[in-house]
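Quick illustration, no need to memorize.
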Amino acid sequence: MDNLLAGCPASTRNGFSAIMKAGEKKYASELGKCSSSSSSESGSQSEKPSEPKADSASCTENELATKSSSCIEEMIAAKGGSVCGAWNTYECCLKETFASCGSDMQGKISTLMGTMQKQYDAILPGLAKCASATCSTESSPSPTPAEVETILMASIELSDPLAFNLDKYIEAVQKATGVAQLPEAVVKAFEIIVKYMLPDATDIAKATAAIAKANGVAEDQVQVAQSNSRRLGAGRRLANSFDVTITVADKEKASAVQTSAANTAALGTELGGTVSVAKAPVSTVKVETKVKSAPSAASKLASQMESAANAQ
C-alpha cells in the first residue's frame, strides 16, 4: 500500500496513515501473530500480473482533476446541441472513466458536478436545471431504479398573488409531465419586483430603509440595486433609477406589498422627496417541485414544468 500511495498528495497519505494506526491499535493482539513483509517483497508482489496496481492508482483525486479537463473538451465539442446534452456528455465522460473505482469516487464526481453546475449557470443559462445523465455504465449489473426524483425551482409571475393555488399548480405539473405519481411542491417565497425613480441624493442604504418602512417589511426582506439611468423628475430635479425586490412568505402579504409598493406618496414621505414608479410592481412566486419520473424522461421535465407554470 505504501508503494501504491507513493505518488498521492500528502493529505491522502496522511489520511491513510491515520486509518492504519487506528486499525493497529484496535487489532493489536491479532497483529502480534502476523509476520511483517519487507518493502522489497511488497514491490516484487506488486509487479505480479494479478495485482491491479494501475487500476488502484487511477482512482485518485489527481486523476479525477486531470480527466475532468479532457472531459470538458468533449463537452465543448458537443456544445452544438443543447446545453444539457453537452453537460451530460461531460458527466458520462467522468462516470464511465471511473466506473470501477467504487462508490467513494462516484460521490466525488457527483459533488464536483453539483459545484460546477452552480458556478457555470451564469455562463450557460439553464445549466443548473439539467438533470443527471443516464450513462452506459449505469446499465450494467447494478440495478437501475425504475424512477428518479428531480427537484426543480419554478418561478411563476402573478397578476394577483391571492389567485395562486398550489394544488392547481401541482395538478398542472402532473398533466404537463405525464408522470404517474402526483408531484410534491412547496412555496419558498413570493417576490414583488418594482422599479423606482428616487431623489438624486438617495443612496442604497437610505432607499432600503425607506422602502421597508413604507411597505411594512423588515430591511433584510428588501433588495435594492441602482441602475445607470438618470432623468429629470418633478420640478426638473434629477432622479436615479432603482430596481427593488421585496421578498415575503405568503400570498396575503404579497398582495398587500404589491399594492403598497405602487403608493409613491408613502415612500416619498419617508425619503423627503418626489418618487415615481418607472415600472409597476409585479409579483412572482418561487415554488420548489419534486417530480418522480423514468430516468429517460428526467431531462425533459424543466421545459414541461415551464409550460405548467405559464398556465397559471
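The chain has a mean pLDDT of 78.
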